[in-house]
Amino acid sequence: MYYNEKIETMDRESLRKLQGERLANIVKHTYENVEFYRKRMDEAGVKPSDIRSIDDISKLPFMQKQDLRDYYPFGTFAAPMKDIVRFHASSGTTGKPIVAGYTQKDLDNWSEGVARCLTAYGATKEDIIQVSYGYGLFTGGLGAHDGATRIGAAVLPTSSGNTSKQIMLMKDLGTTVLCCTPSYALFLAESIENDPETNLKEDIKLRFGVFGAEPWTENMRKELEAKLNIKAYDIYGLTEVSGPGVGGECEYQDGTHLWEDLFYPEIIDPVTLQPVEPGQQGELVFTTLTKEGMPVIRYRTRDLTHLNYEKCRCGRTMVRMGRIMGRSDDMLIIRGVNVFPSQIESVILEIPEFTGQYFVTVDRVNNIDTFQVDVELRPEYYGDDMGRMLRLKDRLVGRLVSVLGIRPEIRIVEPNSITRSQGKAKHVLDKRLLNP
Amino acid sequence: MIIQQLSIFLNNEIGRFTEVTRILAEAGVNLQAFTLSEVSDFGILRLITDDNDKAIATLQAHSYAVSTTDVVYIELPDHPGTLAKSIEKLSDAGISVEYMYAFSQGNTASVVIRTNDVRQCNDVICQ
Ligand SMILES: [Zn+2]
Q1: Judging by beta carbons within 10 Å of its beta carbon (0-12, 13-18, 19+), is residue A420 exposed, middle or buried?
Q2: How many residue contacts between A and B have a Cβ separation below 8 Å?
C-alpha cells in the first residue's frame, strides 16, 4: 500500500527533475531572504543562477549544527513570523537548543512523510495508534500524532511515561500500532512480561511498532518482534530537517526509504567532503527541498550510513538508507585510512571469546601512526595455555585487517582493566592530538 | 607428585609481578616456586603456593585472572646431575615437556614439570 503512489514510485529521472526544480527554488529563495545563506553562498562564490539541476548541489557550501546555534533562534528562518505556526526544539544537553520553525505547509509535508511511512508499514484508518513518544518540544509525539491523524487512524496520545496506564489503555482500547523509541518499547515489553494481569497473546492486539528517534540494531528488532509478537519498523528523522518521517521502512525491512522529493540525501566522505561512490559508507547530508520555515541546505547530520538506489521489491523507487553505523565525529584517520570505532567494536563482538570491551590508542612515533587496540577475554579464556590466547589474538587481527584495511596492534589485557564508562563510552585516545 | 599450579594473567607492565607477590605476602601465602613467561603484550605468572585457596581468593578479589593447572612436582637433592637424570627418564618414555622450572631452597631443589599427560609423567618420574 502507498500513501502517495505517484511520488513514491516515480521513475528516478522524473524524480531528479523535480528535485532539481525544487533545489533551484529553495536556493533562490534563501539567497534573497536569509542573510546566513547569502553570506555563505557569496563566500563560496555560488549564485542562485548556477543551480539548474540537482547535480549542481555539489557547488553549494555545507552547513552544520554549530551554524544553527550561532544563528539562534531565528537566523536561518526563511519565512516571516506571521507564517510560522509551530516551534520544536532539539534536546541539546548543554547550551542553547536548536529551534525549528514550521509553516502550515511544512507541517503538511511533515505529516505526509509520516503518513507515507505508516501506510508502508500497513496502517489504515481502521488502526488504533498509540503515540508513546513524548509530546512537546520533541518532534516525536506531535510528528507521529499528525501523521496518524492524516491517514484517518484513531490516535491514542499517551505521550511517554506512566507505563502501567499505557499497558491498561493498550489492552482496554485494543491498540494495534505502537509508536515510541525502541528502548521504551523494550521497557514496555518487559513490563508486560512481568505483569501477572496481562497475557500478551490474549490481551494485546498490537500488529506492529514504529520505532525511531535513537539508533537501534537488528538484534533489538528481533528482540522486540519476539517479545511483543509484532513487526518492528524503523522510522527516521531529525528536528533540523523536519522530524520523524523523513523516511521509513517498508514491509520488506530492507533499508529505510527516504522521501527524496522532500529531503534530498547525499553521502560524503567526512574528511574530503566529496561525495562517495554510490553504496559506500559516509556521512549523511540533507537538503530540505520544500521547507519554508527553517530550511537546511547540505546539512551535515554526522550520522554514518550508506544509500541503496536499487528499486525495492515494494515498488518504491525512493532510495533506501542503511542502518546508522555511528557518528562521523568519532572517525580516526590512521596511516591515511578512515577507521570508525564502531567497525572495531562490531568485529570484536563477532568473536565470542572476547568481552566486547575495547580501547583504541593512536599515536605517532617516528612519523608513523601507531594503532593499538586493547581487548579483554571472557574470564574462562584466560588460562595457562599461552598458545591458545595468541591464536585468539591472531584471529582478531585477521578479521580487523580485512574489515579496516589496516593492521592494528592487539593487546590482550587483564580482566576488567578497560574502564567501563557510562553512557557514551569513551573508547579512543588519540595521542597525536596531545602532541601534534 | 601431582599438584595444582596457579597461572595468573598479567599485563606486560613494570610492577605487575611485584604487585602480585606483595598481595600474596600480605595475605600470608608463601611461594614455593614461580616462573614468569612473557610475550610482547602479556605474561603468565605460574606459582606453586602453600595455600592455593587463599591465593586464588586473594587474587580474584584484586580482579586478577587466575586458573589452576595440574603439574608434576618433585623435590631433588640440590647437586649436579640429579635433574638431568629425571629428564632422561621422561625422554626415554617419549614424554615431551611443555615447560618446567625449578626453585632451589637450601639443600633441595623443587622442580615443576608440565606435560600434556601429567599422570603418565608422574608415573615415569616417580619410578
Ligand atoms: Zn521498499
Answers
A1: exposed
A2: 41
Express as a percent the part of chain A with pLDDT over 90: 78
Is the CB of residue A207 less than 8 Å from the CB of residue A122? yes
CATH topology assigned to domain B2-69: VC0802-like (3.30.2130)
Which residues from chain A sit within 8 angstroms of residue B44, using beta carbons? 384, 386
For A412, the closest of B42, B67, B69 (CB atoms) is B42
A276 touches A267 (CB < 8 A):
yes
Of B5, B11, B39, the CB nearest to A417: B11
**Fold assignment, B71-125:** VC0802-like (3.30.2130)
Of A415, A272, A414, A419, whose CA–CA distance to A331 is shortest?
Answer: A272
Give the model confidence (pLDDT) of A403-436 as tens digits: 889 999 999 999 988 877 544 457 888 888 776 5
In this complex, do A384 and B7 lie within 8 Å of one another by their Cβ atoms? yes
How close is the Cα of A189 to the center of ligand 1, in Å?
27
In CATH, what number is assigned to the domain containing residue A350? 3.30.300.30
* Whether residue A347 sits in one domain with residue A302: no
8 Å CB contact between B67 and A383: yes
Domains B2-69 and B71-125 belong to one CATH topology: yes
Q: In chain B, what are the domain boundaries?
A: 2-69, 71-125
- The residue range of the domain holding A389 is 332-430
Q: A313 CB contacts (<8 Å, ≥6 apart)?
A: A252, A254
pLDDT at A93 over 70: no
Tens digits of residue pLDDT in A358-392: 999 999 988 899 999 999 999 999 999 999 999 99
Per-residue pLDDT tens digits for A332-343: 889 988 888 888
A5 and A94 both lie in a single domain: yes
Q: Using the predicted structure, report yes or no on whether residue A308 has a pLDDT greater than 80.
A: yes
Which among A410, A411, A414 has the least Cβ separation from residue B9? A414
Of A39-48, A127-136, A307-316, B90-99, minimum mean pLDDT range: B90-99
Which pLDDT score is estimated for A14? 97
- Both A350 and A317 in one domain: the answer is no
Q: Locate the chain B residue with the closest alpha carbon to A410.
A: B41
Chain B: closest CA distance from residue A358 (Å) = 15
Q: What are residue B45's DSSP bridge partners?
A: B8, B36
Q: Specify the pTM.
A: 0.73
